[in-house]
Amino acid sequence: MRSISVVFAILAANMWVVSATVQWKDSISRFSTDLLRKKYRNQQTQKFSTIMNRLKPALSKDPTDNPLFVELPMDHFSPDNKDTISCRYFVQEAYYKPGGPVIFHDIGEASIGPYAKGLVDEEEFSVAMAKKFNGLLILFEHRFYGQSAPSTATSRDLGKASKRQLSEFFKYHTIEQALEDVVYFAKNFSYDLEEYPKQTLTPDKTPWVWIGVSYSGARGAWMAKRNPGLFKATLASSAPVQLQVNFWEYFTAIEDALAISNKNCSADLSAAARWLSDAWENRDSSLVDQLIDAVYQEDWEEQLEQYDPDSEEIWDIRKDYLQDAAWTPFSDFQYYGVNGGTLGQFCDIMETTYSEKGDPAGVFATKSLARAVTAYAKAVAAISPYSYTSSRQRSQRKTKRQTTNNESIDDKLDDYSWLWQVCTEFGAFQVANTSRPENLLPSFINVQNSIDSCIGTFGESEQVSKAGPNVDPINEKYQGWYVQLSNTLWTNGQFDPWKALSVDSEEEDAPTNDTATTNIPQCGKTFPKGTQLRYVIKDGYHGSEFSEDVVKDSPGDVEGIDPTNTIRSLTATRTRTKTALTGTPVVDAINAQNLWFSAMSSWLPCTTLQFNLADSTPQTTTSAPFTSRTPYQTDSPDEAAQTSGSSSNSGDKQNTATPSLVIPSLMIPFFVSILAFLAGIRVLV
Ligand SMILES: *[C@@H]1O[C@H](CO)[C@@H](O)[C@H](O)[C@H]1NC(C)=O
Ligand SMILES: *[C@@H]1O[C@H](CO)[C@@H](O)[C@H](O)[C@H]1NC(C)=O
Ligand SMILES: *[C@@H]1O[C@H](CO)[C@@H](O)[C@H](O)[C@H]1NC(C)=O
Ligand SMILES: *[C@@H]1O[C@H](CO)[C@@H](O)[C@H](O)[C@H]1NC(C)=O
Ligand SMILES: *[C@@H]1O[C@H](CO)[C@@H](O)[C@H](O)[C@H]1NC(C)=O
């Protein structure tokens, strides 16, 4: 296997090179994680304490400052293994009243720290649920994300860990283990409420409700199938339940959106993909090197002179940059679409490079290739987080406020952790399909390349193999997009690319023998076979009903709802006055929210629905795994020793390390403006 680390060692002295794995990982995480609501993402430091003043005294315990930890078995499926893993959660108790449900908000593939801010925001969907239904709201951190992983020498410095250390560390990071975590958590859950006598909050005595988006939405669906009755109601939002390795269909939603009002950009992005594919396949470096020089890497062409410019290793490095360039326009489409997000900005910059109005046919069709590539490079430079411009902004931000980000054990834990899941079980590689004329990605963004990156990061093992992610067991066990669930609301965004893997998929091979309804079945009644409660949010994106504010005092308050009624007409009754900092508000998200409130009103008080918990023996109320404030998990003594001695062997470790975490141009002087960097290509303009 070709190893980029060799090149890395050769070149590192002279230039800062980005590693294949980091670029690729970043693409993955840009697409799959970060479901933080728009406003928290944009205003990281602001605290949304809209309710702090009028809350019950109990909330003097600010939930956002009170992380709790639970000890769970590391390996649920072999009783001999006594290792444990400590998972973090937060509880918002301010709205709880006896008889209210436990609302379990599963965050999935991310640290929950940043989400905790939302626990004191009444416009947050989950908080609104707790308020309407007198619920106890739990924010749960998935194993191996944030602080919910063993703190070891490996996890504290993932960049230095060897492949073997990484695959050993992540061994129990599987979909099934993580689902069982929740079963264990729920069945043993207890919580002291100062205001009330001891409540039994386990799912046999208190209805539990699952809410989740994306991977955590799929987890909700899998849980409903796996442990029926454990949760009395499930909201599976934007849930990609049909796992597949090659997920080129991701881009069809983007193609469709571009075709509506950006035909010029659509044509140009396809042309750029074809140009990049050709340049790669013919090993034609001319314009490619100018692009890299202009966007990412100072004096790239001069530096190349010292090496054989046509060697495969140099082409691997070129590929890293080109991958980033090719991903850049689409990086936040799934949250904001074309006009609210970077794709719209990208298009505007590219299309207006040579004239204010642009040409309806686009730049690739009307200008020389060099000029078209210049327009493309200009847009990448303005938007890529790895370009000179961005690194300059980043470094300025850094010096302004020295942020100590110790939210996770290692800053990169969430990225590695999700990459592990993608490489082992989840798949969904967002790749090119060059046989389609509308294709938007260059041919080197393909499944094989993705699998190589997996192996390049984790090595080959039982879980990471040349055959790629093993998606079949989960699809077989949970029936993919054929799964039929009662007491579950499925929601999807009309333009969300992940919809293609959901029960609302319109792909060719998607189910056709099923029916969507917005009629909530009456208490005790089930759906006709093949019919499920589903709602596609008009103009919506990934998890829109979670990222939009809940309108205060909206219809759907518990008192006003007759649970036996079905929802007849769903219309947005008000338009939003507030606009998120980025993106256009998705008005129809309110209807999804209200449909869910109605479904909860129908299902929660309902006693005739089947509620067949396998194990319904009364739980002890003082269960051992819960402590009110478990300190952050500490090292076992031998690991601590390893760490303290690490200075002596770190050199040794570095040799085996994956070449990662070097972000290009971070170390580059930032005094030169992007226009100066564009000079190389600008000459051609
Ligand atoms: C927690 O729940 C599991 C069942 O999922 C059970 O086997 C275990 O004994 C419980 N632990 C405690 C301390 O109650
Ligand atoms: C060309 O693209 C720009 C930017 O995306 C867009 O605003 C404009 O409407 C397009 N023009 C035509 C004629 O399609
Ligand atoms: C995070 O950093 C702060 C300040 O440096 C420190 O007080 C705190 O204990 C750290 N938290 C963890 C979980 O390491
Ligand atoms: C590419 O798209 C075509 C449909 O245009 C489809 O038939 C084919 O299976 C896709 N290729 C791959 C590798 O999935
Ligand atoms: C729809 O078709 C699939 C595949 O043939 C089958 O497994 C499933 O049970 C069918 N569903 C219904 C509701 O008939």
UniProtKB/TrEMBL annotation:
It holds the Pfam family Peptidase_S28. The chain crosses the membrane at residues 661-684. GO terms for biological process: proteolysis. Residues 617-655 are annotated as: Disordered. Keywords: Glycoprotein, Hydrolase, Membrane, Protease, Signal, Transmembrane, Transmembrane helix. SUPFAM superfamilies: alpha/beta-Hydrolases. Residues 1-20 form the signal peptide. InterPro entries: AB_hydrolase_fold, Peptidase_S28. One of its GO terms (molecular function) is dipeptidyl-peptidase activity. Belongs to the peptidase S28 family. This is Serine carboxypeptidase S28-domain-containing protein.
